[in-house]
Amino acid sequence: MITAQEFLSESDKVAVGEAIKAVEECTSAEVVCAVATESGRYDRAEAIVGLAGALIFLSAAYALRLGASPTDSGDWGGGAALAWLALAVTLGFITGNVVGSYWHSLRRLLTSQAEMDDNLARAAQHIFARARLSCSRSGGGVLIFVSLYERRAIILADAPAAEVLGARGIEDLRDIAIAALRERRRSEVFIETIVEAAARLKGAFPPAEVPANVIGNDLLFFHPRP
C-alpha cells in the first residue's frame, strides 16, 4: 500500500496547490486538503492474526514434540516441553502481529466497517482542529480528507460553511471525492471537490479585499496516521 506522501506526485501537488489558490481568489472561504496513510492503529485485527499465529506455532511445536525425549511416553508435563510450548506461543503471537501489521488486505478483512468509520471521523476531527479551520478569520472552513488504508474520503466544514452547504451539499462534495478516488484520479480527488466547494461557497463568502491564507497549510500529509 502506498503512503500518504506517495499518493500525489510532485506535479499533482502543484496542481492541487494551484486549485486552492484559485479558490482564494474567488472566495474568502478556506479549503484544506489532507491525506493520511491510515486513520487508526487497528490493534484488534493485528491481535487476531497474532492469536492465529500462536495457535499455529503451538500446534507445530506439539506435533514436532519439541522438548520431549524419544523415550517419553507422551507426557508433556516436563519443564523443557512446557518451555518450548510457551516459546512457540510467544513467537507465533509476535509473528502474527507483524504479519497483520504489514498484510493490509488481511487486516482490513478483520476490521469492521464501523471501526474504520469511527477512526476516519476521529482523525478528520483531529486534522480539522489542527488546521484551525473553525478559527478561520472569515469563516467558511472546509476540510477534504482522504485516508488510504480505509479507502475513504470525508468532508468536514465549520459552522458557517456547513450552514451554506447543508448536509446534502457536504454529501455531494464527498461523493465527488469518492468517485475520483475509485477511478484512481488522485489529483482530481481534491481538485474537482475544491472547484465544487468554491462554487457553492463564493456567494456567501466573497473574496476579501486583501487576500490572506489564514490557515497557512493547504495540503497536509500524515504517515502513518494523524
Tell me, what's the shape? elongated
Number of strands: 4
Number of helices: 8
User: What strand order characterises the main sheet?
Assistant: 3-2-1-4
- Portion in strands: 5-15%
Which regions contain 5 or more consecutive residues with pLDDT less than 50? none
Mean pLDDT: 86
The span between the termini is 17 Å
Tell me the CATH topology of the largest domain: Diaminopimelate Epimerase, Chain A, domain 1
CATH architecture of the largest domain: Roll
At the first level of CATH, what is the class of the largest domain? Alpha Beta
Q: How large is the radius of gyration?
A: 25 Å
Largest sheet: 4 strands, mixed
Summarize the structure in words.
This protein has eight helices and four strands. It has helices at 4-7, 10-26, 43-63, 79-102, 104-109, 113-130, 159-182, 186-201; strands spanning 30-36, 141-147, 152-157, 219-222. It has two domains: 4-41 and 112-222, Roll (Diaminopimelate Epimerase, Chain A, domain 1); 43-109, no CATH class. It is an alpha/beta fold and 226 residues long. Strands 3-2-1-4 form a four-stranded mixed beta sheet, with helices on both faces. The radius of gyration is 25 Å and the shape is elongated.
Search tags:
alpha/beta, 226 residues, 2 domains, Diaminopimelate Epimerase, Chain A, domain 1
Short structural description:
The chain contains eight helices and four strands; from the N terminus they run ααβααααββααβ. It is α/β, with parallel strands linked by helices. The protein folds into two domains: 149 residues, Diaminopimelate Epimerase, Chain A, domain 1, CATH 3.10.310; 67 residues, no CATH class.
